[in-house]
């Protein structure tokens, strides 16, 4: 029987075939593991800003001051961190996969007797971006609707208890999802708004 370096040729060929089979299996297993890891990362980390509750399709809910914003709820004027009066409404949404790390909204606010703004509304916004990613270099990515009010405190107090209507359209890959709510403006006289008045 032919030998190479003291090993029978047949035995050597069998050994080489076995080694080749082991390497092939290891390569296949490694690529499968890599695919699983990548898939898990995309599913688990791509859109941290979405609510992951089970749903049959895209949905949206509204919150204000950590409570659901429902018909009859107060919508309070706030003195924002930027030194401006504002309303802040937080959208909760899910049931779809966004096309980017932002979801876009159109909204308007109507206040009884005050709708002399753009397109007959008190205020409106179009293509308003809400960040839904997990990491960003932005200093303050938007996670809420910040409706800035360019008015003095005395004028805002006149809005107290006024009926108002908020409408929002959310753009998703499957179409537009909307929400509407009838609220009451809350801007009581005597609130501590010194920061926004520049007297703090």
Verbal overview:
The chain is globular. The chain is of the alpha+beta class. The longest helix has 37 residues, at 9-45. It folds into 2 domains: 3-45; 59-197, Immunoglobulin-like, CATH 2.60.40. The chain is built from 3 helices and 12 strands.
Summary of the model, kept short:
This protein is of the alpha+beta class. It has helices at residues 9-45, 153-157, 194-197, and strands at 3-4, 7-8, 59-64, 67-68, 74-76, 78-79, 85-94, 102-111, 123-131, 145-149, 163-172, 175-186.
Question: Layout of SSEs?
Answer:
Layout: E1 3-4, E2 7-8, H1 9-45, E3 59-64, E4 67-68, E5 74-76, E6 78-79, E7 85-94, E8 102-111, E9 123-131, E10 145-149, H2 153-157, E11 163-172, E12 175-186, H3 194-197
Parallel strand pairs: 5-12
Antiparallel strand pairs: 1-2, 3-4, 3-7, 6-7, 7-10, 8-9, 8-11, 11-12
Q: Would you tell me the structural class of the helices and strands?
A: alpha+beta
Oligomer: single chain
Count of separate structural domains: 2
Gyration radius (Cα, Å) is 29 Å
Estimated helix fraction: 10-25%
What value does the average pLDDT take?
79
How is the biggest beta sheet arranged? 5 strands, antiparallel
In the CATH hierarchy, what is the class of the largest domain?
Answer: Mainly Beta
Helical segment count: 3
Shape, per Cα inertia axes = globular
> Could you name the CATH topology of the largest domain?
Immunoglobulin-like
